[in-house]
Write a structure and sequence with these properties.
- This protein is mostly helical and 315 residues long.
- Helices cover 68% and strands 2% of the residues.
- The protein contains 13 helices and two strands.
- A two-stranded antiparallel ribbon has the order 1-2.
- β1 and β2 form a beta hairpin.
- The protein binds Phenylacetyl coenzyme A.
- Phenylacetyl coenzyme A (FAQ) binds next to α2, α6 and α9.
Length: 315
């Protein structure tokens, strides 16, 4: 079908489950919504290195240290794919990074909680990466091509991350009484913040309705949260650990687990900067930015010289 108007062409691509590519016309609000979500996603990957990074120097064995190093490095790579994908929408990495450093841009609330014990590294891999996979599998079918393609590679790596976290929990849960208690304590502290990762309930979600119409989001916040709960209850049972929710029970009629109320006041406080680690997380990013400035300057100067000599050669 040939369309004479740009909007009609865009609508047809979305309707046909095809991808919008950077060269295609797109409504300005579609572009801005994607920049918002993708840059938040990229920032989450980069800030998300910090809680686990806290344990690289204290991992219990050399093998654990090597695995954790590799996992944290993967998160940096995910940030890189996502910033690159967002750049195809006409926003520069510097602008996105600056918005993070001045506290304007959001990133996932979960990364403002502290990692107090080694079991927290297990809980992050199992629960936080587990939640991220549920969300990101769905985003593999997002309507913007570069975002969808980045998600495919990211999901493969997240599966390994989740496995390594679950394996840490398994070893602790089968260990001494003190180790099992440490695993249970980590589950108790990370469970509710992980459920908050999926965002507000659908009725309160400002962006969902439009994002679903544009097929940027393929499943709602509540649908994804429910999927995560349903799959994780069985995993906790297998570990012999208890999910800290007295209201959690199987609902035969719905074919899903019911679960207790989420503390949305806590969520709002953490998103607005009042979590235990918000200040420390931003401070760490600012320091990394300042201390790495000379590397960026050197690379830019090399790139400028290099591209100039290429031009000279062609001339
Ligand atoms: N934290 O209207 P909605 C990872 C904000 S990656 C902070 O429902 P939307 C890997 C939201 O931005 C984790 N803010 O928003 C890893 C909006 O504010 P705005 C990150 C949140 O976009 C693992 C407002 O609330 N994953 O973990 C949160 O339709 C281990 C209203 O919300 C992604 O970013 C929150 N949890 O749906 C790395 C996935 N939730 O922008 C290291 C991509 C909501 O209007 C270690 N993103 N808000 O000012 C998404 O799928 C969506 O953006 C949602 C939110 C589902 C997060």
């Amino acid at each position: 079908m040939i369309f004479t108007d740009e909007q009609g062409q865009f609508d047809a691509i979305i309707e046909a489950e095809e991808k919008i590519e950077p060269r295609d016309w797109m409504p300005e609000k579609y572009r801005l919504n994607l920049v918002r979500q993708m840059s938040q996603h990229a920032h989450s990957e980069v800030v998300g290195q910090l809680p686990e990074g806290n344990w690289i120097g204290r991992a219990p064995t050399l093998r654990r240290k090597a695995i954790l190093l590799s996992k944290v490095q993967d998160e940096a790579g995910h940030g890189l794919y996502l910033y690159s994908a967002a750049e195809t929408l006409g926003v520069s990495r510097e602008e996105m990074m600056n918005d993070l450093l001045i506290g304007k841009a959001k990133y996932a609330s979960i990364f403002n909680y502290p990692t107090l014990t080694w079991a927290d590294v297990g809980a992050i891999g199992w629960l936080v990466d587990g939640a991220a996979i549920v969300n990101q599998i769905s985003l593999c079918r997002t309507s913007y091509g570069p975002y969808a393609r980045a998600m495919v590679k990211i999901c493969k790596e997240e599966s390994f991350h989740m496995r390594q976290g679950y394996e840490i929990m398994q070893v602790l849960a089968c260990g001494s009484a003190a180790q099992k208690a440490m695993a249970q304590d980590a589950l108790n502290r990370w469970w509710w913040p992980t459920l908050m990762m999926f965002g507000p309930h659908d009725s309160e979600s400002a962006n969902s309705q439009q994002s679903m119409k544009w097929k940027i989001k393929r499943q709602s916040n509540d649908e994804l949260r429910q999927k995560f709960v349903d799959q994780t209850v069985k995993q906790a049972d297998h570990l012999g650990l208890a999910i800290p929710d007295q209201d959690l029970k199987w609902n035969e009629e719905r074919g899903h687990y019911d679960f207790g109320p989420i503390d949305w006041e806590e969520f709002a406080r953490v998103v607005k900067g009042g979590g235990l680690c918000n200040d420390a997380r931003l401070e760490a990013r600012r320091t990394a930015n300042d201390e790495g400035q000379w590397v960026k300057d050197a690379l830019m100067s090399y790139a400028e010289k290099h591209s100039k000599s290429d031009v000279d050669q062609v001339a």
